[in-house]
Design brief:
The protein is mainly beta and about 190 residues long. The protein contains 1 helix and 20 strands. The protein has one domain (about 1-185): Hexapeptide repeat proteins (UDP N-Acetylglucosamine Acyltransferase, domain 1, 3 Solenoid), CATH 2.160.10.10. It has one helix spanning about 160-180, and strands at about 1-5, 10-15, 20, 25, 30, 35, 40-45, 55-60, 65, 70-75, 80, 85, 90-100, 105, 110-115, 120, 125-130, 130-135, 140, 145. It comes from Candidatus Symbiobacter mobilis CR.
Length: about 190
């Protein structure tokens, strides 16, 4: 469902994107070329700041927002997700938040008030809250990163993790073609 927010903003969605019919895209949202938005995802830009305005939620080209993901923002803060980035099933991305290019965010992860640099791989059930993760780092499943986390203890992304991340992104790009071909059958 594509709908306006109370401020009157309507999502801007590239024609080449695929939005599942069960997804909800609301308000000041920009979805770029070849983005896949899976079943029951919610991308909602509807809260305003003290001045009554809001920044957009922007999903970069060739990225995928998988089943049950929720993307929202506090007080109109920006959420930016780069290109070729995967946000896996049931993750929560709550702005303010910046996620770079070619990033993988694993199942059930929660990100708030953070930056995740280009090429990072964040595994499953991770919480990143108030932390800026530099490019190219790997975060293991169930880790919690906050303002006092010693990031020097984190490993760099290995080849197999980067390859996995690229494979997930490409798989979802391929799904766009398949689902768009089926679109007229229902």
């Amino acid at each position: 469902m594509i709908r306006r927010n109370p401020s009157g903003h309507l999502p801007v969605i590239a024609e080449s994107a695929y939005i599942d019919s069960t997804a909800i895209i609301c308000g000041k949202v920009v979805i770029e070329e070849h983005v896949f938005v899976g079943p029951y995802a919610v991308i909602r830009a509807d809260e305003v700041n003290a001045q009554g305005d809001m920044e957009p939620i922007r999903i970069g080209s060739h990225s995928n927002i998988q089943d049950g993901v929720v993307i929202h923002s506090k007080s109109g803060a920006a959420v930016t997700i780069g290109s070729y980035t995967s946000i896996a099933h049931r993750s929560i991305i709550h702005g303010p938040c910046i996620i770079g290019n070619r990033v993988f965010i694993g199942f059930n992860s929660v990100l708030f008030h953070c930056t995740v640099g280009d090429g990072c791989v964040v595994r499953h059930n991770v919480v990143i809250d108030g932390c800026n993760l530099p490019p190219g780092f790997a975060v293991g499943s169930t880790e919690r990163l906050g303002p006092k986390t010693d990031l020097s203890a984190l490993p760099k992304v290995c080849f197999s993790a980067a390859e996995f991340s690229e494979d997930v992104a490409q798989t979802n790009i391929d799904l766009i073609k398949g689902y768009k071909a089926l679109h007229n059958e229902f």
